Amino acid sequence: MQLIRAIIDTSALRSNLRQIKARAPGSRVMAVVKANAYGHGLVPTALALPEADAFAVARLEEGIALREAGIREAIILLEGVFSAEQLAEAAQHRFEIVVHDPFQVSLLERHRGEHRFVVWLKIDTGMNRLGFRAEDFAAVLARVRALRTPPAEVRVMTHLARADERDCPMTRQQLDRFDALTARLGLARSIGNSAGILGWEGGCGDWVRPGLALYGISPFPRGSSAEFGLIPVMTLASTVITVRRVPKGETVGYGGAWTAPRDSRIAIVAGGYGDGLLRSLANGAPVLVNGRRASLVGRVAMDMIAVDVSELAEVEVGTRCVLWGRGLEVTEVAAHAGTIPYELLCGVRARVPRETI
Predict the structure, then answer these.
(1) Would you state the CATH architecture of domain 10-219?
(2) Which residues are CB-neighbours of 29 under 8 A, at least 6 positions away?
(3) Residue 338, exposed/middle/buried by CB under 10 A (0-12, 13-18, 19+)?
(4) Is the pTM of this model over 0.85?
(5) What is the DSSP letter of 252?
(6) CB 266, CB 244: distance < 8 Å
(7) Per CATH, the architecture of 234-356 is what?
């Protein structure tokens, strides 16, 4: 009997990609698979998406892992490279590179290789994280166009800071700034993250970069995946390992963080912060037990959680539970931990087996 496992539904992954393409019909899709594909498994995720036009990773090592697995589609390094050696490796593996800092332009100017990169110039329109400010962009573009080894293509991109807030004016301001700088350049443009694609007119560009939506999760805090035709790809499933009776007034777990308000039946479920559940998950966080909702009680431990199943019949050793996924959106669980779904998904530990279906 396998206790806790992350079940990865590749048919859901492909369905989500089709939904994204339908919502951005004029755009090519750069599937974001950085951070181990948001916890879903870097290589299996990429192999399951032959219809993606390209893959986006954060770092060189992620891109190399994809090439070694046989991925031949374009791979974009979202953080770029930071040394001459990394630039040479990027050329060897035919990676496209994001350039967001003058130092990276200098690396390209000193480069003497024959490989012609596809260069993505990143413009900071308000995120204030990576990218060239508007007043510096023209000079940077001129330097890149004058490289000794000219780029195969220059493209431009920006990143939206608050697109998940549908009533926030900042996103429209960012889109307008980007449009003012790039609309007449004749260069391919990339704007849309998941929230930009799903929530904003003009938020896509020639290339979109879906992350969270690709994995079947709404990027909006109060949205549901079904609202956009998305299907959760990961189901974090587990198993009851014992059922206990706890008399009224007794506590459960470390620190006595929960006191039984009545005579209770408590299921102990495999899975804890050693697997990626957050210790900050509060009493009352939902768990599906045999497909029915129950509540977490007491503190998350390293390997176990406790769930109040007093109202549920037929709960025993081996009963299946869902910690998040099909039937229980990870966004709801994350809210009970005071965090966002990205952290839960990316935090699933290596010791949790992935089952790809």
Answers:
(1) Alpha-Beta Barrel (3.20)
(2) 17, 20, 21, 52, 53, 54, 207, 208, 210
(3) exposed
(4) yes
(5) E
(6) yes
(7) Beta Barrel (2.40)
- Cα separation, 148 vs 162, whole angstroms: 38
Which listed residue (21, 34, 273, 342) is catalytic?
Answer: 34
Same fold, 10-219 and 234-356: no
In angstroms, the CA 31 to CA 51 distance is 10
Backbone angles phi and psi of 334, in degrees to 5: -60, -35
Q: Is 248 a catalytic residue?
A: no
Q: Which amino acid is at 348?
A: V
Asked whether 75 and 57 are in contact (CB, 8 A), the reply is: yes
Tell the residue number behind the tokens 């010791």, with chain if given. Answer: 351
Helical ranges in 69-193 per DSSP H: 84-92, 102-110, 134-145, 170-182
Catalytic annotation on 254? Answer: yes
Catalytic one of 38, 215, 248, 254: 254
DSSP-assigned states of every residue in 145-205? HT-SS--SEEEEE---SSTT-TT-THHHHHHHHHHHHHTTS---EE---HHHHHH-TT--B
Encoded tokens for 93 = 């593996």
Tens digit of pLDDT at every position of the chain (357 positions): 779 999 999 999 999 999 999 999 999 999 999 999 999 999 999 999 999 999 999 999 999 999 999 999 999 999 999 999 999 999 999 999 999 999 999 999 999 889 999 999 999 999 999 999 999 999 999 999 999 999 999 999 999 999 999 999 999 999 999 999 999 999 999 999 999 999 988 889 999 999 999 999 999 988 889 999 999 999 999 999 999 999 999 999 999 999 999 999 999 999 999 999 999 999 999 999 999 999 999 999 999 999 999 999 999 999 999 999 999 999 999 999 999 999 999 999 999 999 999
Please say whether the beta carbons of 349 and 274 come within 8 A.
yes
What are φ and ψ of residue 229, in 5° steps? 70, 25
Report H helices in 49-124: 60-68, 84-92, 102-110
| Residue boundaries of the structural domains of the chain | 10-219, 234-356
